[in-house]
Design brief:
TIM Barrel, eight-stranded parallel β-barrel, 429 residues
Length: 429
């Protein structure tokens, strides 16, 4: 892996006209940076190949639309993400619907929308696809997701090789292939192997793709598949909540192409079409969080900085199991005319009424005062989308879109409670 950037990074936010007047807290998404990240990743992948953008990282319509405009397909795993992809203009036949469990209503909705592919994790999921196909009078194309026998190295979040809700164990498929045969109305024509997440070492990526390609070959032969789509997943890492460049994997395309040549010699002509997924690499570096300082004080001899944003706006999703714990790099974005001192060992918190709302217990950061605006970079992926938005009911941050160095849109998510059934005092409708 090489730590350098061959293209010009996005401009400093301070250079964007009008951004200093935007109400904080605010996430700012620079579409030029998302496009740059896309170009970077495409050059590091073997060609020809398809690239799916994983909306779980950030489903903001401007980001989805920008990446779709560059040729990205979409990977979704909920009805909300499906709606976001369709509204952003992604063609239904370029959408892959994944997830270890899908409600019948979700499957029906997606099939009626014309979704191109579904990833299934078990014989029961194949049965569900068959029922849905029969009811709709269509054929549903499926990828069988595989949970390999051993975990791949270098993962920050293990997705395979352990007991998991994701995929069918490779040994299960190989020992009882009949359970995974195609059903009426179901075209089982692909495999899905997603082995790890947030990997920043090229050798570790190659190791996981080596295992995935080898396993895919064995499964294909065992099931007698007419393999049309081979989704090798991704796991391409990116810096999170800290400054730093996107990692470069200079030899990845050549090395993975060699693996594919050995096991699937027709892949260069589309037999099978090879696909990869990415969320954080494509959207992570395009986003920054701007948040204002609400209070600065001393407590038991330690500086304490209280911000507008806490775990409700950044880093609240414990399910990501980030190791080490999230400690954002806080940079001064807009200061009110004071010097360049440093607060040593500061406790940095949000405004929530819980001691859990802490970004850092001992952080060196620029000396700030009440009213200053600070910036956390590289939070375009799993920033707002992975936060505790409903916790304690504080206002949502604004989301600001910057394109070509200018603000092109400002929006805000809202949580709205709707009564589906209204009961009288006796508990009756």
């Amino acid at each position: 892996m090489t730590e350098h950037q061959p293209t010009t990074p996005a401009p400093e936010l301070a250079l964007v006209p009008g951004l200093d007047q935007v109400e904080t807290p605010a996430y700012v998404y620079d579409l030029d940076e998302a496009r740059r990240a896309h170009g970077l990743l495409r050059r590091m992948l073997p060609q020809p190949s398809r690239l799916f953008y994983s909306l779980k990282a950030n489903a903001h319509p401007a980001i989805v639309e920008a990446l779709a405009g560059l040729g990205c397909s979409a990977e979704v795993c909920s009805s909300g993400e499906l709606a976001a992809a369709l509204e952003a203009g992604v063609a239904p036949d370029r959408i892959l619907y994944t997830g270890p469990g899908k409600r019948d209503a979700e499957m029906t909705e997606a099939v009626k929308a014309g979704v191109g592919w579904f990833s299934v994790d078990s014989p029961a999921a194949l049965d569900q696809a068959a029922r849905t196909a029969e009811a709709a009078g269509v054929t549903v194309r499926c990828l069988l997701r595989i949970n390999d026998s051993s975990p791949a190295p270098g993962q920050s979040l293990t997705m395979t090789g352990v007991a998991s809700q994701f995929g069918a164990d490779a040994d299960w498929v190989l020992s009882r292939p009949g359970e995974f045969a195609a059903r009426p109305g179901v075209e089982l024509a692909g495999l899905h192997l997603y082995m790890g997440s947030n990997i920043t070492d090229e050798d570790a990526l190659v190791a996981q793709f080596t295992t995935a390609v080898s396993t895919a070959r064995r499964i294909t032969d065992s099931l007698g598949l007419d393999l049309r789509l081979l989704n090798l997943g991704g796991g391409f890492g990116a810096p999170y909540a800290r400054s730093g460049p996107l990692p470069l994997f200079d030899g990845l395309a050549r090395r993975v192409a060699g693996l594919l040549d050995a096991e699937f010699p027709g892949w260069r002509e589309g037999g099978p079409c090879v696909a990869f997924e990415s969320g954080r690499f494509l959207s992570g570096s395009c986003g920054s969080l701007l948040t204002r300082v609400l209070d600065v004080k001393m407590s038991h001899g330690r500086p304490v900085v209280v911000l507008e944003s806490g775990i409700n706006h950044l880093g609240g999703m414990s399910g990501l199991r980030r190791l080490p714990p999230l400690v954002p790099e806080v940079r001064t974005a807009v200061a009110r005319g004071h010097g360049g001192g440093v607060l040593r060992g500061a406790i940095v918190t949000g405004p929530l009424c819980t001691p859990l709302d802490t970004w850092a217990r001992s952080l060196d950061l620029p000396e700030v005062r009440i009213g200053d605006v600070v910036e956390v970079r590289n939070v375009g992926a799993y920033g707002l989308s992975a936060s505790l938005l409903a916790f304690l009911g504080h206002p949502m941050p604004q989301e600001v879109v910057v394109d070509g160095g200018r603000i092109t849109g400002i929006s805000r998510l809202d949580l709205v409670r709707r009564n589906s059934v209204r009961l009288n005092s006796g508990g009756k409708e």
